[in-house]
Write a structure and sequence with these properties.
single chain; mainly beta; Elongation Factor Tu (Ef-tu), domain 3; 6-stranded antiparallel barrel; 3 helices; 12 strands; 12% helix; 41% strand
């Protein structure tokens, strides 16, 4: 489990394309400082497992074809910056919200509107995810826990949401440089999905 509070911006230093998977080499000195084989590290919001012993401030992670198809990890190239977060420690503070690292879909940055002290980012999202998004609710965008500041009505054909990025988020995550048209990983609040299932199964 993660909290959506990015610990550092790392970098993809190598990508090995396999038949039905890819092996990423990710540079992240902070997140690898106490990492061991089998540990989980979120890369742009996708929970990946450390493969082999981390060394030289980097780690290896295998990404199955399923994850490549369901997330924007397949868009990464050597040199791409990535948001990194270690799994939450038991007893630690939950600074963001409960994040599983299981991407629900891919959205597209549709617009960026600078403000005096923040920037509003609009993201188009798959219609099937719209029902889980509510104003003032939580959303994870490329591994960053954010609050939805505005969103489309559930009945609207085109589904979108807006988030307001404070200077810290702009400076310390890749969202500060994510261009319009870029695909981003989205994870909706897992509580919304559980509530929906309970309501549907109620007699």
């Amino acid at each position: 489990m993660f909290t959506g509070i990015v610990e550092e911006v790392g970098e993809i230093t190598a990508i090995e394309r396999l038949t039905d998977a890819a092996r990423l080499t990710v540079r992240g000195p902070l997140v690898t400082s106490d990492a061991a084989p089998g540990d989980s590290i979120a890369v742009n919001g996708v929970c990946l497992t450390v493969v082999g012993e981390p060394e030289d401030g980097g780690f290896l992670a295998d990404v199955m074809d399923e994850s490549l198809q369901r997330s924007a990890l397949g868009d990464l190239r050597t040199g791409s910056p990535v948001n990194l977060e270690r799994a939450a420690a038991v007893g630690g503070r939950l600074g963001g919200h409960i994040v599983q690292g299981h991407v629900d879909g891919v959205g597209t940055v549709a617009a960026r509107t600078p403000g005096e002290n923040w920037e509003v980012v609009r993201i188009d999202l798959p219609r099937e995810l719209g029902r889980y998004v509510v104003e003032k609710g939580s959303i994870t965008v490329d591994g960053v826990s954010l609050t939805v500041s505005a969103c489309a009505a559930p009945e609207d054909e085109a589904q979108w949401l807006e988030v307001s990025l404070i200077p810290t988020t702009l400076a310390e995550t890749i969202l500060g440089r994510t261009a319009v048209g870029t695909r981003v990983n989205l994870e909706v609040d897992v509580l919304a999905k559980y509530v929906e299932r309970l309501v549907r199964s109620a007699p």
